[in-house]
Amino acid sequence: MPQLLQHSEINKTAWDACVEASAQRQVYALSWYLDVVSPGWQAVVEQESGIYTCVMPLPVRRKFGVLYLQQPLFCQQLGIYARQALRPEQAAAFLSIVRRHFKYTSGYAFCTGNAATLQGIAQEQLQPQHTLYLQLNQSYQQLWKGYNRDRKYNLNKARRERLRIAHSQDIEPLIRLFRQNIAHKVYGGVDEAAYQMLRRLYTACVEKGITELVYTLAEDGSITAGGLFLYYGGYIIYIFNAADSSGRKSNGRTLLLDDIIRRNAGTPQVLDFESPMIESIAGFYQSFGSVPAPFYEWKYNCLPLPLQVLKKVRQQVLLSLLPVK
Asked: What is the residue range of 230's domain?
């Protein structure tokens, strides 16, 4: 029988063993990762004789005295992780417990490994989404043939620019690239706490030995683009990236991604572009031959009517403050 556990009640050794043994295993769901991106997280847990057999992490937030769920930064997917095949009725029981204890979720993303099971659950609040995956279990020559014509052209252009690829353990240049070239495009801006979280997460991933940080350098040695990749559970996650105007013009990120693909070609891994459903970004990632991988996002609002009205008014005010294009 699944039950809700407070953060202090979670046996993190048993938790990580369950995630590791699950068919859905992802780095996002490991206890140390959650401790960084969602401090105080709770969970729904099913266990037998102290062994966790099925778990669901809950990224809990509080506002106006109300506990609710919100997908954390640097964590595209979560969901249900089970040692045995996840059954629709089992998933439904987990969702029922969540709804009983939390009256609102601004968006909880289930992992791609849950998609088939959730199709069997009649939940009108489940909204289809997708990321983009590239199977790397072919030779580099075959994978390169999957690039579209523009990507091949831009890759050759990047090589003509004589960009160099450099590995690093210093994430500050990547953060600076993002601050100076991308942050102003993000709706609502980027809080300083997000950069602090990224630093903590990067440090934790380095300690676990699962990260790769790469930059492109121009002929003068200046950094023009960078990408952070996480390796876990058969996936290579393109977790964070940025480029300046020079890096974009010289196709630095194309060179970085091609390098990752080339070096990992012929392995049973999947490159997860962690793609948002934004046409221009998804189109760039699809140009490498990646294909959509579906998952579901769960949104519902069972708050008392006054709080629902307050939330809608707040959203309208925020929208009214957006600049007119």
From this structure: 137-268
